[in-house]
Write a sequence for this structure.
């Protein structure tokens, strides 16, 4: 007869970390579904299945909660393919990279949640400072890795501008998709953008690898 050992008891730090993770995930879901103005800490606690007291113990203020959720979201981006710095980065043509970015970042409801936070930060200095610190860390890493995946020099001004133009267009499609009622229009817009990029690459109009 096999006797299974009793399950290992989690430490207080592990339980606390799990609570923080659930609250961050619930915050992102609430921001995506309700928006910044309608999101409440009471609703976040309910979604995370924790008490209001547990929430305020982890995050004394609403801004603390939002900044932590933003940091949590960026951590998931940094740790997921293709951005994970460890190992070999894939070498991609720009059209393929568009598909990767759309699937991993812009297509998700959590990207809309991140926009809700960034727009709210325009009117809240404390929130803005916290979010910009997290965003600066992420964008520096993201843009360097994107340049490497495209085989382009990361410190070249044309490379930097090209990456930002592409991100801005995809960001716009993501916002449009969040309220557009026409099925499949986001995919048609992405396909057209990839067609334009392919034509520009064939004509030698895009930044080139050294």
């Amino acid at each position: 007869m096999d006797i299974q050992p009793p399950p290992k008891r989690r430490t207080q730090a592990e339980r606390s970390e799990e609570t923080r993770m659930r609250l961050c995930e619930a915050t992102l879901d609430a921001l995506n579904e309700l928006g910044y103005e309608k999101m409440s800490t009471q609703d976040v606690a309910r979604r995370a299945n924790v008490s209001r007291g547990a929430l305020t113990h982890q995050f004394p203020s609403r801004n603390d909660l939002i900044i932590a959720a933003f940091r949590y979201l960026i951590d998931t981006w940094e740790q997921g393919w293709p951005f994970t710095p460890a190992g070999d980065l894939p070498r991609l043509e720009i059209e393929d990279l568009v598909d990767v970015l759309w699937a991993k970042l812009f297509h998700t409801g959590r990207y809309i949640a991140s926009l809700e936070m960034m727009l709210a930060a325009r009117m809240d200095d404390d929130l803005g400072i916290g979010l910009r610190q997290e965003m600066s860390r992420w964008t520096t890493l993201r843009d360097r890795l994107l340049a490497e995946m495209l085989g382009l020099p990361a410190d070249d001004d044309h490379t930097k501008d090209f990456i930002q133009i592409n991100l801005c267009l995809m960001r716009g499609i993501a916002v449009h998709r969040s309220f557009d009622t026409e099925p499949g229009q986001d995919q048609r817009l992405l396909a057209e953008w990839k067609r334009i990029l392919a034509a520009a690459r064939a004509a030698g109009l895009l930044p080139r690898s050294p």
